[in-house]
Input
Amino acid sequence: MHIELQPRLDPPRWLGVAAPVAAFAVALLIGGLIVALLGKSPLDAFRVYFVDPLTQDWSLEALAVKASPLVLIAVGLCFCFRANLWNIGAEGQFIAGGALGGALALATHGVPHDGPLGGSWILPAMLALGVVGGALYALIPAVLLVTLGVSEILTSLMLVYVARLALDYLVRGPWRDPQGFNFPVSVNFDPDATLPSLVEGASLHAGVLVTLAVVVLAAVVFGRTMLGYEIRIVGAAPRAARFAGFSERKLALAAFALSGGLAGLAGIMEVSGQIGQLQPSISPGYGFTAIIVAFLGRLQPVGILVAGLVLALTYVGGEGAQIALKLPLDVTTAFQGILLICVLGADVVTRYRVRLVGRVLA
Amino acid sequence: MRDWVKGAAVVALAAMAGSAARAEDKLKVGFVYVGPVGDFGYSYQHDQGRQFLQKQFGDKVETTFLENVAENDSQRAFEQLARSGHKLIFGTSFGFMDPELKVAKQFPGVKFEHATGYKLAPNLSTYSARFYEGRYIMGEIAAKVSKNHTVGYIASFPIPEVVSGIDAFMLGAQKVDPNFKIKIVWVNSWFDPGKEADAAKALIAQGADVIAQHTDSAAPLQEAEKAGVHGFGQSSDMAKFAPKAILTSLEDNWGPYYVGEVKAVMDGTWKSHDTWGGLAAGMVVMGPYENMPADVKAMAEQTEADIKSGKVKVFAGPIAKQDGSVGVKPGEVMPDKEILGLNWYVKGVDDKLPQ
Amino acid sequence: MNGEMAQLILVTVVTAATPLFLAALGELVAERSGVLNLGVEGMMVMGAAGGFAAAYVTGSTLVGALAGIALGALMALLFALLTVVFAVSQVASGLALTIFGLGLSGLVGSGFVGLKRDPAPHLSIPGLTDLPGVGRLVFGEDYFVYAALALAVLVSFVLGRTRAGLVLRAVGDNHGSAHALGVPVRRVRILAVLFGGACAGLGGAYLSLAYTPFWSPEMTAGRGWIALALVVFASWRPWRALGGAVLFGGATVLQLHAQAFGIGLPGQFMSAIPYLATVLALVLLSLRRRAGSVAPAMLGTAFVPDR
Output
């Protein structure tokens, strides 16, 4: 007996929504089983994870702040992944962007701004530098790939470790706050170098709006522009793309630069919006988690927005579960893996008809 | 949309009513850890403190912890705890300083405490332990026990706490053996058992016959045991990992402090303060002195008693810096503020601090 | 530096290289069949947790190693189901496997935090192990090291000299033709992936049974990723993977030695050396190669037979 897959030529639209929802339900069942095995009530866990965070203003804001970098990086990654380029070093590009943009904040710290613009140019310049930093850092593996054929998976990954250590060195050395008792943190950024809050006194910062704008823009680029078209063709039918005369090299460079640039933007927004200073570690693995978000969102900008929010929900809810139910954090991590596995597995029914074929063994 | 979600949630809540814990009369105490409670090192010891606290007060308190919280997420973690009715919240990592300060300003009715930081607020205290006091004793023991006159020191990150630990260790060692040598390896991690083990092996291969560590895992100590040299336990009594190699352990002991703070909150006497306690306060505890001659043990016990009584001050002058310049003048004692931000080595340390 | 010290350093290098090599060898076989499994880290850490738990409960290092192998293979089975049977994206499934493994291993291992075992036994042959200069290096390693070498011989032989190896490579290079010739493509791939998981699990068990004999969460500390790099570095050849593992292990260990000697470079720079060296080595390798990739042609693509 074996399983046979028959490609669906024209998958029905409803299936594209129903399958992930069903997968979510299955993941919930498995997660509930684990919770029950740990001796807690699955219903309580469901409420704490998925209902409570959606019912209060502050937790909704926390969701948006947590999801923002994930979504931004993941949208960038889809430019690469769609073209079958495996950039798994977004974490390093995030750090590079945060560091380069943050460097400007440190350089302008405490300096009076007498020009006609005052200090208002600093924040936009920081964001631009963040994009540049991330893009340049992503171009290292891209250039090595297109000129020498070096595997981008590995170089982009190795460069993550290098970026982490470089930032660590800078913050412990040259960028250290001289008044900070030699602790490894920079000075707090000036207001001119800080992303403004959207709600008075809350953590919701303007970067969330930037992310939303990028999602919309990316959806347009994918659906309506030549670049989006080329990326889709190269990814889906590389040979056809070559016949059509697309330059794979240019495309690879463009995809990496875009994806690195967005990761870098996410980095500088995290630094100037959420953290407000530079410190040895500016990312709790956002660059890696975003890869999951990209796939959960089926490599589509709007899907990624939803996926990013769902994943952020498990983080916020996971903390709630530790507080209210004393569930260990590992449950959350395991559940995130299960969720991803289920959603990926559900992909099969949208792309193929699945059949069990064959003899029943006597 | 949001209202719709709220409505649905209310229905769901009503359906599940009865399961929500009602504990208005209990004092809820929250803890935020930077590592997993299973690290068997820094976060583990804080959690031991929490469990001690829970045991002391029984059902008069309810304790909660959030583990493995990254700095970026810590503000939300503190906010979650404050919003869920916790009245006293401990943040146990330096990196939580600014996020905790922000949340403290937002929730003036909640008491916050931050370990190893230096920013205070009316409802935010700081607390830390003078681990360097214990390292001074360890240095003395190492200098007595080592035959090669060399200690291998596995360090995590060049922050003041680690630097002051190295300095104190060497001051203790030099009192016994002025020519005592130290070899330092920075592993750039608080917790990476494999790398810590490799560092210990490298140091032992290069002639160190006592291993000291300012990282969290028991791996270096186990390597010492394997190689037949000596070592020290970190954070908790690690004797069982290396019964033949262990000399003593430098134990973190947060429980009594946590109990005191909770009592203060219950009595209404809690005030913002800056606590920096050492051996005398019981925040730092020396493990049993083992695998050493009786005279060395007696010396260690004497020094411990003298530090507790204040007769011995670790950073009492004269202390020369690495380059020979004056660090602390004769007759003076380094002020706490300087120890808290220490960034230079004492003379005799053969290593370069990243500046 | 005298001979004894050189030997001590080399023994350390061997220990550092062994888990990397075990995981890389397994992944190499999977990739040769055309399947890219980025879940090595997750399979390794499960092997470490399960291996320690089983060894602690039964008191037997061997049972621990077998449990590590079994758990690694179980994780790989899940991966094979997704990618080989259901034709789901291999990159995404591999990452999911890593996350799942990190979480689940924390749950499995939570009861074993702070417990210790004696390290795995070492070979000891009277007369030989005590030979000065080389005895401990050649005749005094733990049994995992010899098992890893035996595995290398086996894999290299099977891949290069047997029909099974030929079939495996054929599946990785062109699954369409292999299928046309009557090769059960998916079955071959499932077996290759399972072997990869078993090796990763064994590599993980090595960490918690021999390297540092206790369990702690996330104790693999990125070694699964390094193993993945080694496969490419080795151009998908077993013996080169061994060379790569020794080089990487050597770079890690030597930077620690350089620090202990008192070289005045920032520790962060020293820690970055192994990663930079890997990138540099990849670049140099690609300069020496002529145009065209040596990767299995089907690497990362799912096989869906059209009946």
